[in-house]
Amino acid sequence: MPAHFFCRLETGSTLAAVRIYVCLNPNSDYNGSMSEPKIAQKSPIVQKVEPGTYYWCACGHSKSQPFCDGAHKGTGFGPLKTEITEAKTVAWCACKHSKTAPFCDGSHSRL
Ligand code: FES
Question: What is the C-alpha to C-alpha distance for residues 38 and 72, in angstroms, rounded to an integer?
């Protein structure tokens, strides 16, 4: 169930009400203390992958980068389920700041 928050934005003489939706993953271990993900490394992890389901680590604490090993417990993060449909080489994000997660978008170069 998403949590709804309301806020008011004032721009010049215009007042607007904005509804903000925050969706919490009911399967996450979110404990209300959202923090930044840990930077596992500042370069992508490039791998050849086969078709299948992968669980990319979003918290950065996994010892099995780039995949989840359960170390996210209590961090407010959870793994991102990713379906790979064909064999190919992918560049997994390891800095955990990509806007196109789980794949690298070059964000590590700005950290
Ligand atoms: S260990 Fe990082 S998301 Fe699971």
Answer: 10
Q: Kindly compute the dihedral angle of the four CA atoms of residues 28, 45, 60, 21, in this order, to the nearest 10 degrees.
A: -50
Segment 77-109, tens digit of pLDDT: 999 999 999 999 999 999 999 999 999 999 999
Mutate to test the pocket of ligand 1, among 29, 64, 77 (most ligand atoms within 8 A of CB): 77
Q: Which atom of ligand 1 is closest in space to residue 59's alpha carbon?
A: 2
Residue type, 64: S
- Can you give the three-state secondary structure of 71-99, one letter per residue? CCCCCCCCCEEEEECCCEEEEECCCCCCC
How far are the Cα atoms of 46, 56, 100 from residue 80, in angstroms, in the given order?
Answer: 17, 5, 12
Among 93, 78, 77, smallest CA distance to 41 is for 93
Does the model's pTM come out above 0.90?
A: no
